[in-house]
Design brief:
heterodimer, A: mainly beta, 13-stranded antiparallel sheet, globular, B: mainly beta, 15-stranded mixed sheet, 53% strand
Chain lengths: 245, 257
């Protein structure tokens, strides 16, 4: 079912937020913290993912260029009223340019760049949307909007593909360069938090929700991610969401 | 115990150097290669002006220390500092860039400096932070915070002052650069390369207007509304401590339509 596939794709897209743990101080690395809301098997709700990136000689980690997010088998996204939104719409009109039903998540990120003698930071608001099918594969779009010191808008597209157990699907995302200023380094995302679905108890019957798997494997739900950084290095990370009581 | 010499100097710098676009000029001791561009490159638009300059020595040694920059930009290029804050030199000197309001930021830059010692030449990276300062007698002024960390710590606060420019130029800036003696008895430091980006394209800050928090966009540097045939003329003069000087007259190509 296209709607179900799209939903899974969205979930995977959210996984973009997941991260791995690294070793060397200067080498880029990441960590991820997933959380189900509510934390109950088979429940409809939200999945929250927080990623933190580390490393970088100047105190700013190298930008991520590609990420592959692996989500636990059985995880799905329920979209009662399937709508999609194209990246071009998001770029031109922002979140308001898309059907409300196509929005599947909200979040925020912190971006940094080392320019001059300082590290500049910018808070970025995030929105996640169901994207149009690409080669019959579900996609998702993540819109980032920062206002100050740089009024910038960016859109990233991810695609979904099946994975092997214990994972269900992968979210593959190529992340374009985020330029800062001419002659200065590109922008790095330092932290990213994204919540997909809704955990509201009183929610609309057409609200998009995450459906927690009805069974929890021994050891918990496994999340994984692989990253390729702009400096050419790569890394991977694992995270486990413990089984609900 | 290793000692890290620290130099703290106040000097005047010129943001005008930004007006040069692409030029290669040879002088007695080598060649100066200058490259510059507008981003975005559009007539009448708020833009970032970025410039790079590199000295290539033909004598084997570094260029003489720089004592003054004078730069003239093309007529019609303006700096719109409305809605920008201002930084006070004393605060910048005392606290570094954190002592300046965020909305006084005018640009960034850096480069490589040279310290010639008896047995070696040390190449040291430095950074530049540009801030709007209060106008002086109605003329624009910028503060430039130059900083190097290792192996020699250097902190300089420069004041770039607007100067009258002869035709066919418009905006002019001049800055005097003090001689920097990093170590007792050692020759003065010189410059191998410099880069800078000035402007406020896409820069915005929140400002309270009638009690309401409002996102305000800065304009900063604005590209002239028309481009003369052959491109925008500009001129830069560098005075060296040995009494020589170097003048470059690059032309900034007109934006593509």
């Amino acid at each position: 079912m296209p709607a179900q596939i799209a939903a899974r794709a969205v979930v995977l897209a959210l996984a973009v937020c997941v991260t791995l743990t690294a070793t060397a101080q200067a080498a880029p690395s990441a960590s991820i913290a997933p959380a189900f809301l509510p934390d109950r098997l088979g429940a409809k709700g939200a999945l929250g993912l927080t990623i933190r990136y580390y490393g970088g000689e100047s105190g700013v980690p190298s930008p991520v260029r590609r990420s592959v997010w692996r989500l636990p088998a059985g995880l799905s996204l329920e979209i009662p009223d399937l709508r999609s939104c194209a990246a071009a719409q998001l770029r031109a009109h922002g979140a308001s340019g898309c059907p409300p039903q196509s929005q599947i998540g909200r979040g925020h990120a912190l971006a940094e760049v080392h320019a001059g003698s300082q590290i500049l930071t910018e808070n970025i608001a995030l929105w996640a949307f169901v994207g149009p099918l690409h080669n019959l594969q579900p996609t998702f779009e993540i819109l980032g909007q920062g206002y100050t010191p740089f009024d910038e808008r960016m859109v990233f597209t991810g695609t979904v593909r099946p994975d092997r157990a214990p994972y269900g699907e992968d979210l593959v995302m190529s992340i374009p360069t985020i330029p800062s200023l001419p002659l200065e380094p590109d922008v790095s995302i330092v932290t990213l938090s994204l919540t997909v679905g809704t955990s509201k108890v009183r929610r609309s019957h057409v609200a998009n929700t995450i459906v927690v798997p009805s069974h929890c494997p021994a050891g918990g739900f496994r999340f994984a991610a692989e990253f390729t950084y702009a400096d050419g290095s790569s890394g991977s990370a694992l995270a486990t969401a413990i089984c609900p009581r | 115990m290793a000692m890290t010499p620290k130099v703290r100097i106040v000097l005047a710098a010129s943001p005008a150097c930004v007006c040069v676009i692409v030029a290669t000029v040879a002088w007695a001791r080598g060649t100066l290669i200058v490259h510059e561009r507008f981003t975005p490159d559009k007539l009448g638009a708020s833009t970032n002006l970025s410039v790079t300059g590199r000295f290539l020595s033909t004598t084997g040694g570094p260029s003489a220390p720089i004592t003054k920059f004078t730069i003239y930009g093309p007529a019609g290029m303006t700096v719109d500092a409305r809605d920008a804050g201002t930084c006070v030199a004393a605060k910048l000197r005392e606290l570094g860039p954190n002592g300046c309001p965020a909305n006084s930021r005018a640009g960034f830059g850096g480069g490589v400096g040279l310290l010639e010692l008896p047995k070696e030449t040390i190449r040291e990276a430095y950074t530049l932070d540009f801030f709007f300062a209060s106008k002086e007698r109605g003329r624009l002024a910028l503060l430039v915070y130059a900083s190097a960390v290792s192996p020699v710590t250097v902190e300089l606060v420069l004041v770039a002052r607007e100067v009258r420019a002869p035709k066919p130029y418009g905006l002019g800036f001049s800055v005097e650069v003090p001689l920097i003696s990093a170590l007792p008895g050692a020759p003065y430091a010189s410059v191998e390369s410099v880069f800078a980006t000035l402007g406020a394209a896409n820069v915005a800050y929140y400002k309270t207007v009638r009690g309401k928090k409002t996102l305000t966009h800065l304009k900063g540097i604005v590209v002239p509304k028309t481009c003369p045939r052959g491109g925008f003329p500009s001129e830069g003069t560098i005075d060296f401590a040995d009494g020589t000087n170097l003048t470059v007259n690059p032309t900034i190509p007109c934006p593509r339509k």
